[in-house]
Amino acid sequence: MAENVKEDPETPLKKLFGNTPLVRVVDVLIENPRIGYSKRELAEAAEIKLDDLNKIWRKLEEKNLIHKSPRAGDTALYTANLESSLLKALATLESKDNVKKRLKENYQELSATRRESKRKQREN
Fold this sequence. Notes:
The protein has helices spanning 12-17, 21-31, 39-46, 50-62, 85-123, and strands spanning 66-72, 75-80. The protein has 124 residues and is mainly alpha-helical. A two-stranded antiparallel ribbon has the order 1-2. A hairpin with a 2-residue loop joins β1 (66-72) and β2 (75-80). It comes from candidate division MSBL1 archaeon SCGC-AAA261G05. This is HTH marR-type domain-containing protein.
């Protein structure tokens, strides 16, 4: 049976701090700030073990990166703390990197279109 391998792009946070459980969780929170996760769901979304999430949980709370949301039945849910200045700064870093990537992709696409247009003109 073929294993489903998910592409894991290197985010600015991963480039800066490494591919650690904390960075993976923060990336998930930045990418999906309004989604409420149970601890298990957050670990799955970050592709880390629940034990690893539990090891960094205190740091997430101390740095005010998570916010406890209304419960879903008996399960506590957590979202990104949208008031956290640290999380806002990290999200800005991610956002600027994404804008740079899109600009580069658009430039490359435009250049390819221009080259193709010039090639067609020479053929005629």
